[in-house]
Design brief:
Chains A, B: One of its GO terms (molecular function) is DNA-binding transcription factor activity. Two copies of one chain form a homodimer. Chain A is an alpha+beta fold. The first copy, chain A, has ten helices and ten strands. The structure holds a DNA duplex.
Chain lengths: 259, 259
DNA sequence: GAGTGGTCTAGACCACTCA
DNA sequence: GAGTGGTCTAGACCACTCC
């Protein structure tokens, strides 16, 4: 512990935050460890409780600490990184009966079972939001199948994914069912003769807003990756998937043309 | 304005934040607008000043508001989105004498001049950090050229990019100079016979830490995109670029193989 | 029940901005 | 100099957790 410098330009609460941050990054307090309580720090530094709270507020905003009412404050461990590789939509995976996310989790050595770890949030026919309809080359009035799911891996909600499939492509296939079968939506589309030729992903980082923040169990201000994937069969967009990912839980890899 | 519900489970400061947030999203207060002062809100809601501050702290953490000491609190306008397209490293751009970032900014219609908007932060020969050296297939002892630059577009710092080039590839070329010439590093590498075959990008989202937070002029807790690009000529990695982007200022597009 | 964090009030002094 | 936000203290009541 560094003694406070009351004559410093740096605010007391920042000095306390600096002290705690240093201890965290130095490993004095590891991920999941309980940090000193407010009253302990009040005694240690000889400051008001609100000043200690202010220091913690800073560390929480930085994503280093989280708070549990009645229990204490703890070092935020980064969720283990899930790598999304650029070949995750390779046909061989679909042929092997595996959906892209399943492939990723297996490669990462995660305990993941699509049957129990994917919750259906919404499954209906309806219209698509304008931005999605535009990507599908549809008007807002055209009907699509809407499938919203939440993926929870090892107790951690990782992503909310909403797929939109033009109704004429989904009807009469397992895409309409809760369980789309081996290889997922893309496998079913290819079985129906819509061979995928191209997949694009547009991604942006946002600060989580309700209800995504709640569904991913994120703290206020936490970033999410908003990823919109469009799958093409020839010139036709056959599916759009609108996904929100727990940003700090993923690493994404892509390959770019150099030619 | 919604009157406060003192008997509600929802904290007073949250109710005030909800009220302000609703006004912001409804456009009552547009980007850059000054929000009501603390004393005004104290009078309006009949609460303590600290409670108003608590409400603002929430909106600031959410990235909706920023504060200027002595002046007021203002609606945070999202920086205009810069789209990074998947073909930005196409050879035709280099042939046309344009670096990838230049291409992007032109396509976005931004006023951007590489001669004045790129600041050199570091230019030296030395060793690369371990993670970078590994990507280059080098040992930590091997010498590389290090080029760190900050890109400021229309007054907004957008990215900090540090390139690492094995010294044997950089020596004797303009890559060693502050100005790498038309088409940038990649154009010079190709002129030396190192025809680029493949470019990979690995990206992760992080909460900005010093000094990146300062260099990008970001508020506490703001997300950055940490992007590591590796350029290959045949099997050899000829450059690694380690970049931090202002996360909310960019939208990235990629194309994925479906086959 | 003891300890923890969550919220709210009252009041104070300060630093900064803008006219 | 008036108004703004930044910081700090003192004290209070409450809700939650864990034993």
């Amino acid at each position: 512990m560094t003694p406070l410098d009351r004559s410093s330009d740096r605010a007391i609460y920042r000095q306390i935050a600096d002290d705690l941050r240093a201890d965290i990054t130095a490993g004095v307090h590891g991920p999941g460890d309980r940090l000193p309580s407010e009253s302990e720090l009040v005694a240690r530094y000889g400051v008001n409780r609100r000043t200690v709270q202010h220091a913690f507020a800073l560390l929480i905003a930085e994503g280093l600490v989280y708070s549990e009412h009645g229990s204490g404050r703890f070092v935020q461990g980064r969720p283990p990184v899930r790598r999304l590789a650029s070949d995750r939509f390779a046909r061989r995976h679909r042929r092997a009966g595996k959906a892209a996310f399943t492939v990723e989790m297996e490669q990462a050595g995660r305990a993941y079972d699509p049957a129990s770890d994917v919750e259906m949030l919404d499954l209906r026919t309806g219209s698509a939001p304008e931005a999605i309809a535009a990507r599908l080359g549809l008007s807002g009035a055209d009907k699509v199948l809407v499938r919203a799911r939440r993926y929870v891996v090892e107790g951690l909600p990782l992503q909310i994914a909403t797929s939109y499939v033009p109704l004429d492509l989904a009807e009469g296939t397992a895409i309409m069912s809760a369980d789309t079968g081996p290889g997922g939506i893309y496998a079913r589309l290819e079985e129906s003769g819509h061979r995928l030729t191209r997949i694009t992903e547009d991604l942006a980082v946002e600060v989580a807003a309700e209800p995504v923040q709640r569904l991913l169990r994120l703290p206020v201000g936490a970033p999410v990756i908003h990823l919109i994937r469009t799958a093409f069969a020839g010139e036709r967009a056959v599916e759009v998937c609108d996904t929100h990912l727990n940003a700090t839980a993923f690493e994404l890899s892509y390959e770019l043309p150099a030619r």
